[in-house]
Amino acid sequence: MPANQAEDYVTDFLDQTRWSPDRYELVAGAMQFTKYNWFIRFVVKRIAKAKGLSTDTTRDHDYTDWNALDRFARTFVKQAIAA
What we know:
two-stranded antiparallel sheet
């Protein structure tokens, strides 16, 4: 999913809930083909193909930006301790 599309989901969520966090980070995503039933695997494979992602359904695909998640978590903890 393009970052701007993910950002749109977050913006919509924040608008609907009227929640205003100080900070958030878009870092995670995965396709867990080995855990899907045949129908979900079929649908996700078509989505992956349309987005130019791997369609190898014999394994799971992790697109998480672990470095960004680590930076976000460390900053979050530091801010929470300082508060």
